[in-house]
Amino acid sequence: FFFQAEDGIRDYKVTGVQTCALPIFDNDFVYLRYLTANWGGDSPARDRFYAFDKRTGKLVWASAPGDAPKDNSFARPWFDWYEGKRVMYTGTGCGHLVALNARTGEPMWRYAVSAGGFNSSVILHKGHLIGIHDDENLSTPEIGGMVAIRIDAKGKPAEVGAPLISENIDVWRNRQRSEEHTSELQSPCNLVCRLL
Length: 196
Fold this sequence. Notes:
By secondary structure, this protein is mainly β. About 5% of the residues lie in helices and about 40% in strands. The strands form 4 sheets. The chain has a 4-stranded antiparallel beta sheet with strand order 3-4-5-6, with no helix packed on it. A 4-stranded antiparallel beta sheet has the order 7-8-9-10, with no helix packed on it. Strand 3 (about 25) and strand 4 form a beta hairpin. The termini are far apart.
C-alpha cells in the first residue's frame, strides 16, 4: 500500500506482491522490485524493476535486466547521472550488477559476478560500482567477496535481459569472506565512509 504523506490516506495498491525490497523515491518516481512471473513475453521468472509515478501511482515502466534469478534480491539501487542520463545501478537475483536508465527502464548493461543474488546494496564511488555478495564467484570457486567494476563498459546484446558485458571490467576484487556474517554480507557503505 502507498499512502499520501499529507493525510495518511491510502493512495493506491500494488497487487500480486509477495516479497520485495523497500520502495525507493527519486525525483518523480517510486521504484520497486520483485521476483515475478507474468504472462506472455513476461512469463519467465525474473528480478523485475518497476517505476511508478509518485503522484498518480501509475506504472511508468517495467524492466527485467537479468536472466533467471537464483535468489530474491534486496539490494537497494544507487542513482547517479552518466552521459546525461539518470541511471539506476543495483545487484540482481541472478548475480549480476546492472545499470538501467532510471527514466525509461531501458537496460544499459549487466555484468555477471556471482552464482547467487545480491542482497547488499551497491554504491558508486569515483566512477566504480562496488557490490558485495555471499555466493560462489563465477571466476573462482571461492565463496563471497566484494568487487569494484568500471561503469563505462558497453555490453553486447543478449538473448534475454540487458546487454551483457563479457570482458573483465573489474577494477579490484576482494574475495575475503566475512566469517562473522557468513549468511549475508553487509553493505559496502562502511567502506565508502573510509574512502571519503
